[in-house]
From TrEMBL, chain A:
Residues 491-502 have a biased composition (Basic and acidic residues). InterPro entries: DNA_repair_Rad51/TF_NusA_a-hlx, RNaseH-like_sf, YprB_RNase_H-like_dom. Residues 304-486 form the YprB ribonuclease H-like domain. This is YprB ribonuclease H-like domain-containing protein.
From TrEMBL, chain B:
It comes from the Archaea. It comes from Haloglomus irregulare. GO terms for biological process: interstrand cross-link repair; nucleotide-excision repair. Pfam families: DEAD, Helicase_C, MZB. Residues 303-492 form the Helicase C-terminal domain. SMART domains: DEXDc (SM00487), HELICc (SM00490). Residues 86-269 form the Helicase ATP-binding domain. This is DEAD/DEAH box helicase. One of its GO terms (molecular function) is 3'-5' DNA helicase activity. Transmembrane segments: none annotated. Keywords: ATP-binding, Helicase, Hydrolase, Nucleotide-binding. Residues 1-41 are annotated as: Disordered.
Length: 513, 838
């Protein structure tokens, strides 16, 4: 029996753990790692394999983030966070039959002096290396190993109850809920697996992963690319260029953004056109603005912003089509939502709405050419083939593609990844909903659909918090509109002069001649 | 098929040249008298010659099959098999055409494309070819037929890794006919719903062509079978229900093979209506110096090979003899010999030839650049080169024109390869001549003893392909899920149902498929890292795979699966590749990209890897009880192989130069398929009694080999069962299209498994997860055992311990010791008797 995923409580503050593999630390410059830690600002770092031993030294004291190493030591180690309401503890493989007070005491003694009799924490996060996954395609079975031994180590009542269990023996991002003594046990991967995952595993080593644990047991995970921080966070600056720049005294994106252009071009042997691009990107990054880098204009006509929620990245449905008609702040948001699993009436309503309102206006989506537009087309083809031709004739516009790729890119944007919300957040936008992302939404929907379709009395199946999911989608279309407006503003500015106002130097483009 | 441009297979072009004088038969050059007169030291090497009479074609008027509109555009009548294929297609059937090479099978699908195009100009067709070069050749051929000859306007394009991206975009948007290869389809398939062009293409798909379908067996076949199932599943989503046309070389089981490969049902077209020219086939055996054979040789296999003139050198002499007699010749070399070496040997042999004529020769192989290749092709066509040694990789596909004669240097392993090579000979008014120079192998030996095998139409190998490998299935299941969410009804393509559901459950539990989803309620989505297709390798079953790099330069070597790497590519191993000797200098399995680093070398040494094997965890899947206490089983099990050490031996003496040296390779567990023959508990005693004291003495080597029983009775019987095991594996390719380098064996006097009361021998797939080879051997055991018994008993060597032509194997981990052909024959006879009584 599968356990349906829970959403975090609204406005809850998660405990944020950054699972940091030693190899990720080793393959990036110290400045990059520090910039990452400062930007992500986790409550604590968990040293994970491969080469977990090198992580501790890479986290400088001034950053002040505690580091736990579940694969090291013979005794548990613990860190209370969130004002003592959450306890994060390592359960080393050698420890046996631990006592709750003892584990709590480790955290108190080492970091806070003597135990002071504070009440028990509300939630615990336990870190182990023992729990692993075994996959045997010949037996056609995947099983969790090591849970029994781990359970024997834990203080009584800690296996289930208010505890989330993270194992370095499970691959980062992996999550499952298994059962022990009939109770659900929430397991989260923070390391790497030895299981044979076939083509479901890449050759790449593990990436740093941010794990957010909410007091109600909800968990969010996401990878963090160290190469998205500090100098490396500027698109176009790889490790080699970063080295050149550091040697010349540039250590932050701001340094690069403020550099006299000629100096930059000479210095890195970039040639002037890449130096220009680099500088624009650094500026976008350092100042949280959109900087025009190309000549293509945005579409004429008032944009209609679209974002779909599906049942996965390779979806079979778009159960929610979020539409924003108008601007980021005051535009009208319309969620076209499936009335029940399998129904496509909302898609038809969306198409009718387009017929009535979208004449000549661009449909704007983020990464739309790769996802939203083809997914919608596929669904229209399946369910409303009469609309396909009109759909194909609509002006479909992928803002990410236009900004980043069209003719070498038109606008440099901030944000530590190219996904929608981080970019908008880089521009200063703030979401209304928290603790949800596209993956979580897809999971919640999929689990509900399963329960609904399998139930004798579908209407008795407990529905997810649709309003919250619709609000998440609204966040996305408003974030999209925010970026669009920033791009418009950037394009309106003369690309040559924007740079000057910020850097205080003369000439910009003409400087290179 | 591809050698039908320019079309040699039209009725009017049939070789009915009889009227104009009486041309000399090319085969005269190899007549007894000609050879006595001019072949250097002729020693009766010609063992057999066969003259094949010319055959007229059978035709049907095009109007009888095609609508007038199309028939009018054809210049010729259709051969009966083409007409039959087209009729089946008109009736809505799928067609597998298995007529001979150059019988014009292409016409069946080309004309079907034309019909579809006339019905609906938006109709599309997808054609899969085993090699990129073949797709390009066919793009040209199809363009000529459809657009020029038949005046239609479909857009035809090759879409693969070499296609430029603008061209690709145009093909996606507009093409009616897309030509590619299965590995390409594997990675293009996931784009089906992300690109309007593909969407259009799949929605309008009326025809899927699988050309040279016999090429898809073994590991590659397993992958192709799953790729095609994934294709069919995606097509179902588009409500596309195309017809399938598969062409194959002549195989014994065309319908079964086509069905296993695609999951669809087929009508078979196998009555060849095409004409055939007359040709002579000569079997040529390199001379053996029996006095040079040493009964106590350190390496009996190498000793035998030393005593026999090498196949490569002998082939070169034959080529030189033909060339000096103005017979332009194509020589098909083995991969080991290499074409460069062959070219040198031909020049040298011509120098030794009494005619004292200079012979021009140019090697031809895949490593040549396009311009160099074209140059050789032109020289061949213009008669500017006398002899061209080529790799047998080029036997199919690439159009290198026709020559007067071909020389095949050792049996290429399948009848279809052999006939494909033979098909290159023959042009103008003289008859075609083909020579096969025998290699040192049980198959070659069998064919030289039984030449009828080559010419009998009813003795054709079955193609072997399996979809039972769970690891490969697991990988393709992830790929399928990333193409569209999985649903209960997908069992139609990805069945059997229990396996499908269990595997989906496994991946859900492993977090690669959405755990909260259900096949029966909404479908299961893929949640793993993007594009799992890109990580599927057609060379292996999902285990570690090594890239071969050369320290000193380039080496054009396919990736090596772990199963073969441990045996043949451990550190210190010597191997021949394209005529060059290499030594493995480093094996790196740790990194993300396992690598075997080799260095060019030139030694008079070779290496021999010893292995020990254990077989455990047997599960019976099928059982054939025979009479008495004899039993045959098929099932799964774990084979643990240790390639612990190897010997370095001298090429000429076979003496150990160094070793045993450690290989450094860890033990390897294969979870794979096996068949085993269990003999009655008392069989050893009974057999030894019949030998009446005529026992073999354990060799010195065997005394140091813990796996070999030293007691004479057990040693001798062990040699017999070992010989039976070897013999069956070595001759299996005569019945089944399988590579016996991917089959392993183990014979033992006892084994703890419950199905085994007495001695037993195992045959197992050498590939993790299995690829259907042992299963096919299990199913064809009667024929194989009978043939092996005959061959062992009749081998010319007449030696108890056998020779490489009967029971010795280069892959033996026990240095071919003990082997006893006498006891082996008795054991096989008893098993055959028990089968009669079953
Ligand atoms: Zn022999
Ligand atoms: Zn052997």
């Amino acid at each position: 029996m599968t356990v349906r995923p829970t959403l975090p409580p609204e406005d809850a503050e998660p405990t944020r753990l950054l699972a940091l593999p030693g190899t990720a630390v080793e393959s990036h410059h110290r400045d990059t790692v520090v910039a990452m830690l400062e930007a992500v600002a986790p409550d604590l770092v968990v040293a994970t394999p491969p080469r977990a031993g090198t992580v501790g030294a890479a986290v400088p004291r001034q950053v002040g983030t505690p580091v736990l190493a579940p694969e090291r030591g013979r005794l548990p180690d613990a860190v209370p966070t969130k004002g003592g309401t959450v306890l994060v503890a390592t359960i080393p493989t050698t420890a046996r039959g631990l006592d709750a007070a003892e584990v709590r005491g480790r955290g108190q003694r080492e970091r806070r002096g003597e135990p002071d009799g504070t009440p028990h924490e509300e939630h615990r996060v336990c870190l182990t290396a023992r729990v692993t996954l075994d996959v045997d395609p010949y037996a056609r079975e995947a099983s969790i190993d090591g849970l029994d031994g781990y359970a024997d180590q834990l203080p009584d009542g800690w296996l289930t109850g208010d505890t989330t269990h993270c194992s370095t023996g499970l691959r980062a991002g992996y999550r499952t809920t298994t059962r022990a003594d009939g109770e659900p046990v929430s397991l989260v991967g923070i390391g790497r697996t030895e299981a044979s995952l076939g083509v479901g595993a890449t050759d790449d080593g593990p990436e740093p992963t941010l794990v957010e644990v909410y007091p109600n047991g909800a968990v969010g995970t996401g990878t963090v690319d160290p190469g998205a921080f500090g100098l490396r966070g500027v698109p176009g600056i790889g490790e080699k260029r970063a080295r050149t720049l550091r040697r010349a005294g540039f250590s932050t994106p701001r340094d690069v953004a403020d550099a006299p252009p000629r100096e930059l071009a000479d210095l890195s042997g970039l040639g002037r056109s890449s130096a220009t691009g680099l500088r624009a990107a650094a500026e976008a990054r350092a100042h949280g603005t959109a900087v025009a880098t190309g000549d293509d204009s945005l579409p004429r006509g008032d944009p209609i912003f679209v974002d779909i929620e599906t049942d996965g990245r390779e979806p079979s449905c778009a159960w929610l089509i979020g539409v924003l008609d108008g601007g980021a702040e005051d535009g009208h948001y319309m969620p076209f939502m499936e009335s029940e699993p399998g129904d496509t009436g909302h898609l038809e309503s969306f198409l009718h709405w387009l017929d009535a309102n979208a004449g000549g206006r661009p449909l704007v989506a983020w990464y739309g050419y790769q996802f939203d537009f083809p997914v919608l087309r596929d669904l229209i083809q399946q369910h409303y083939p009469d609309h396909v031709e009109r759909w194909d004739d609509r002006y479909q516009f992928d803002l990410l593609w236009w900004a980043r790729d069209k003719n070498g890119g038109n606008v440099a944007l901030p944000g530590r990844s190219n996904t929608l919300e981080p970019v908008a957040e880089g521009l200063g936008w703030e979401p209304e909903t928290t603790g949800i992302d596209g993956g979580v939404v897809a999971r919640v929907y999929t689990a509900y659909r399963r329960a609904w379709l399998s139930a004798d009395e579908p209407h008795s199946v407990e529905a997810p918090d649709w309003d919250r999911l619709a609000a998440y989608c609204e966040d996305d279309v408003r974030a999209l509109a925010t970026i669009y407006e920033a791009c418009e503003a950037a394009a309106r500015r003369d690309p040559g002069t924007t740079r000057d106002t910020d850097s205080g130097t003369q000439g910009a483009l003409s400087d290179f001649t | 098929m591809t050698d039908e441009t320019p079309p040699p297979d039209r009725p009017d072009a049939a070789r009915t040249d009889g009227g104009v004088g009486s041309p000399q038969r090319t085969a005269e050059v190899l007549s007894e008298s000609a050879l006595e007169a001019s072949y250097p030291e002729y020693r009766d090497q010609v063992r057999h010659s066969e003259h094949l009479e010319e055959r007229d074609g059978d035709t049907v008027p095009a109007e009888a099959v095609l609508r007038p509109e199309l028939a009018a555009r054809l210049e010729y009548d259709l051969f009966t098999h083409q007409a039959e294929g087209l009729d089946h297609l008109a009736d809505g059937n799928n067609v597998v055409a298995t007529t001979s090479t150059s019988s014009g099978k292409t016409w069946i699908y080309a004309l079907q494309m034309a019909r579809n195009h006339l019905d609906d100009p938006d109709a599309t067709a997808l054609c899969l070819f085993p090699m990129k070069a073949l797709a390009r050749d066919q793009e040209e051929a199809l363009t000529t037929k459809l657009r020029h000859d038949w005046d239609l306007d479909p857009f035809i394009g090759t879409y693969d890794g070499d296609t430029r991206s603008e061209r690709k975009q145009r093909i996606r948007r507009e093409a009616n006919v897309v030509l590619t290869n299965p590995a390409g389809l594997n990675v293009y398939l996931p784009r089906h719903n992300r690109d309007r062009g593909w969407h259009r293409f799949y929605s309008n798909l009326e025809l899927v062509v699988i050309d040279e379908g016999h090429e898809y067996s073994g590991v590659t076949g397993t992958h192709v079978a799953f790729i095609l199932r994934r294709l069919r599943r995606v097509l179902e989503h588009y409500d596309a229900d195309p017809q399938y046309v598969m062409t194959t070389a002549t195989i014994g089981n065309p319908a079964e093979h086509a069905t296993r490969l695609t999951g669809a049902d087929y009508a078979v077209v196998d009555e060849d209506g095409s004409p055939r020219g007359a040709r002579d086939i000569v079997l040529w055996e390199p001379p053996l110096d029996e006095s040079a054979i040493d009964a106590d040789a350190a390496d009996p296999m190498a000793d035998f090979e030393q005593a026999r003139r090498s196949t490569g050198a002998e082939s070169a002499s034959v080529v030189a003899h033909l060339a000096t007699n103005d017979v332009q010749t194509l020589q098909f070399c083995s991969a080991r010999q290499g074409t460069e070496i062959a070219a040198k040997q031909i020049v040298q042999a011509a120098g030794d030839h009494p005619s004292d004529r200079y012979v021009t020769t140019d090697p031809y192989h895949a490593g040549l650049g396009k311009t160099e290749r074209r140059a050789v092709e032109t020289k061949l066509k213009e008669g500017a080169v006398d002899a061209v040694p080529t790799t047998n990789a080029l036997e199919l596909g690439i159009d290198i024109g026709s020559v007067d004669a071909t020389v095949t240097s050792s049996y290429p392993g399948t009848k279809q390869s052999f006939w494909q090579q033979v098909g290159r000979a023959g042009r103008g008014t003289s008859d075609a001549l083909s020579v096969m120079v025998g290699g040192v192998d049980a198959m070659d030996s069998y064919i030289f003893e039984n030449p009828g095998y080559l010419f009998a139409d009813d003795e054709v190998e079955d193609a072997v392909v399996s979809v039972d490998n769970d690891r490969v299935f697991a990988d393709h299941l992830l790929a399928a899920a990333s193409e569209r969410p999985l649903r209960a009804e997908d069992v139609e393509f990805l069945g059997d149902e229990a396996r499908f559901r269990e595997m989906v459950g496994m991946w859900q539990a492993a977090g690669l498929l959405e755990e909260t989803a259900s096949l029966d309620a909404g479908g299961v989505t893929y949640t793993g890292p993007r594009r799992p297709q890109d990580r599927i390798s057609m060379y292996g079953t999902g285990g570690t795979e090594f890239t071969v790099v050369c320290r000193d330069g380039d080496i054009d070597h396919d990736p090596v699966a772990r199963e073969r790497a441990y045996r043949d590519y451990h550190e210190g191993a010597l191997f021949l590749h394209a005529g060059q000797q290499y030594e493995v200098v480093e094996v790196d399995e740790e990194g993300h990209h396992p690598t075997i680093t080799v260095a060019e070398t030139d030694t008079r040494e070779y290496t021999q890897t010893a292995s020990t094997k254990e077989i455990r965890d047997l599960t019976v899947r099928d059982h054939t009880p025979l009479s008495g206490a004899y039993d045959r089983y098929y099932g799964e099990g774990t084979v643990r192989i240790r390639y612990d050490n190897y010997l370095v031996r001298d090429v000429f003496s076979g003496e150990v130069v160094r070793g045993p040296l450690p290989t450094g390779a860890p033990p390897m567990d294969l979870r794979t398929e096996l068949m085993w023959v269990a003999l009655p508990p008392g069989h050893l005693g009974a057999t030894v009694d019949r030998l009446d004291g005529d026992l073999l003495q354990p060799t010195d080597r065997s005394e140091r080999d813990g796996a070999v029983p030293q007691e004479e009775e057990r040693y001798t019987y062990g040699g017999g069962i070992h010989a039976a095991e070897h013999g069956i594996i070595q001759l299996a390719p005569l019945e089944l299209m399988i590579d016996n380098a991917d089959i392993g064996g183990l014979s033992t006097l006892s084994h703890p498994h419950g199905t085994i009361q007495g001695p037993v021998w195992f045959v197992h797939d050498g590939i993790d997860g299995g690829i259907g080879f042992s299963k096919a051997i299990y199913e064809h055991f009667d024929t194989l055992a009978e043939r092996t018994r005959e061959h062992i008993a009749d081998c010319e060597c007449g030696r108890r311990r056998g020779c490489p032509m009967c029971v010795m194997s280069e892959h033996c981990g026990n240095n071919n010791d003990p082997l006893d052909t006498l006891t082996g024959s008795m054991i096989l006879e008893d098993v055959l008797d028990a089968m009669d009584g079953e």
